[in-house]
Structures are given as C-alpha cells and as structure tokens.
Design brief:
The strands form three sheets. The protein has a six-stranded parallel β-sheet with strand order 2-1-3-4-5-6, with helices on both faces. The chain has a two-stranded antiparallel ribbon with strand order 7-10. It has a two-stranded antiparallel ribbon with strand order 8-9. It is built from seven helices and ten strands. It is of the alpha/beta class. It binds flavin mononucleotide and iron/sulfur cluster (2 copies). Flavin mononucleotide binds next to helix 1 and strand 4.
C-alpha cells in the first residue's frame, strides 16, 4: 500500500508510477475517511512533497497515527532541489527501511518562477528513470538511503522549517482577481478546506498547508499570493503527462 499527499500532482504521479511498477495500489490520504486496514499489506510506502526541507504536516499526522506492522517500509519525498533532513525526520515518525528523494518540477511559485519548459520535461524524464530503478530496489527490499540533502540540511530542516510552519502558512495573502469566473474549483479541491465561496468569489481562511494547488490549478490563473505571484507562470504536472497518466 502506497500512501501519498500531493498539491500539484508530482507526488501523486510518482506514487501511481511506483504502484504500477511494484504491482501495488496508491492511496491519496486526503480521500481516506478513516485509517486504512493495513493488515495484509506486503509493503507500506509514503510519497509526499518536501515543504521547507520538511514533511508536510498532513503527512506527518497521518504517519504518526498509522499502525506500524513488521513489513517492508519505504518513503519518497519529491522536491524541486534538495530535501534536507526530511526523510530522517519522517523516519522518526514512521520507521522506514528505504528512503529516497526524487527531483521534480518546482511548484513553489511564491518563492520564484517555476522551472522552464525544458527543465520540467528533463526532470520528469529523469524521474521516470529513477522510479524504475527504485522499483527494482523495492522488489529486492534493499535498505537504501538515496536522499539529496543539499547544503546546511540541519539549519534548513530545523530553523527554516520551524519558521515556515509558524509564519509562512498563512492563507490570508491569497486573493482572486477580476478574471475569476466563480467556478468553485479552488474551494472544491483544497485539501485543507481553507477556501469557501462568498458572493461567487473564493475567500481563504487563516491557516492552510501551502500546497499551492489553488493558485497553480485555477483555470483562469486568477489567484495571486500578495504581490509575489503577479506575472508568474503556474505549474501543474498534468500538462506534461500523456493522457493515460493524468
Ligand atoms: C510550501 C512549499 C515548500 C517547498 N519547499 C521545498 C524545499 O524545501 N525544497 C525543495 O527542493 N522543494 C521545495 N518545494 C517544491 C516541492 O517540494 C516540489 O515541487 C514537489 O515535487 C511538489 O509536489 P506536489 O506536486 O506533489 O505537490 C516546496 C513547495 C512548496 C509548495
Ligand atoms: S478556481 Fe479560479 S476561477 Fe474558479 S473560483 Fe477559484 S479563483 Fe475563481
Ligand atoms: S488554500 Fe490553496 S495552498 Fe492552502 S491548502 Fe488549500 S489549495 Fe493548498
């Protein structure tokens, strides 16, 4: 059983690819009504994005609650660049036999423009190869730690991550501009249920996961985050996948 959380599709795609390659099933943890029955699982895997060199809170909460049977376990974090101590921190919540990071297109458009088209396509191609390699290692149930931690992982995963969770997860800077057509997609798809429609326009509550699904997937590109995102391209993996993988 492979459990995933994903804002803009990278981790969902990686989880589904791994499930296909290891003859398993992938489950979106935001669709689970209760803790899953994992009694007959032959392996337990987790796939999720890196947020400020750490584990997204929603995935950390899920891992803490999930029972820990004696089966093969692995985790994959997807990241735009480097993962810091994310997987070591996750292993303290849920012991992992194998840990990986997988470089994928960067969706953090609050910080900078997303990768350009060539970079996006190159990263997805390289990720496909890495997923094939991972799947072979998972079949053999090898103990692997292949995580690109990057520079100063301790500082990033402790100090910066603390600041991110304390101060940066504020949804208040989100707003919808004039091009919003009131379709409600952002509200319906928000995994934190942080968005409601008022008078046909979305409004955001205080705290959210910062998954950036709303801003990246709005069909009208109407959503902004303060002044940071005006004129910036949006990113979601769907545009880069063949139909059968979307
Ligand atoms: C709030 C936030 C923080 C992020 N922090 C990092 C980071 O610390 N290091 C990194 O390499 N990528 C970072 N990223 C990029 C994502 O981890 C990366 O694009 C990931 O593959 C997105 O996965 P998803 O499409 O499944 O949501 C961040 C993205 C977001 C939205
Ligand atoms: S998805 Fe975009 S267009 Fe639709 S309601 Fe939300 S902001 Fe408006
Ligand atoms: S408000 Fe937007 S960024 Fe925050 S959790 Fe919902 S979809 Fe993700």
């Amino acid at each position: 059983m492979i459990f995933y959380f994903s804002g803009t599709g990278n981790s969902a795609w990686a989880a589904r690819q791994l499930a296909r390659l290891t003859d398993d099933e992938a489950y979106d943890i935001t669709n689970l009504k209760e803790l899953p029955d994992i009694e007959n699982a032959k392996q337990i895997g987790f796939v999720f994005p890196v947020y400020a060199w750490g584990v997204p809170e929603i995935m950390a909460d899920f891992a803490k609650k999930l029972p820990k049977p004696q089966v093969f376990t692995f985790g994959v974090c997807t990241c735009g660049g480097d993962a810091g101590l994310t997987m070591k921190q996750f292993s303290k919540l849920y012991p992992l036999r194998s840990s990986y990071s997988l470089r994928m297109p960067n969706n953090y458009i609050i910080g900078s423009d997303p990768d350009n088209e060539d970079e996006i396509l190159q990263k997805i191609t390289a990720a496909r190869e890495e997923l094939e390699r991972m799947a072979q290692e998972l079949h053999r149930q090898e103990r692997i730690y292949r995580v690109h931690e990057g520079a100063l992982p301790g500082v990033k995963s402790r100090l910066v991550n603390f600041g991110f969770n304390k101060f940066a997860r504020n949804a208040k800077p989100f707003f919808a501009g004039d091009s919003c057509n009131g379709c409600g997609q952002c509200a319906g798809n928000c995994p934190a249920h942080a968005i409601t429609l008022r008078d046909g326009k979305p409004v955001w509550a205080g705290q959210c996961f910062q998954c950036l699904r709303c801003i990246n997937e709005c069909p009208c590109q109407a959503i902004q985050y303060g002044k940071a995102t005006a004129g910036r391209r949006r990113y979601t993996i769907r545009a880069y996948l063949p139909r059968g993988e979307q």
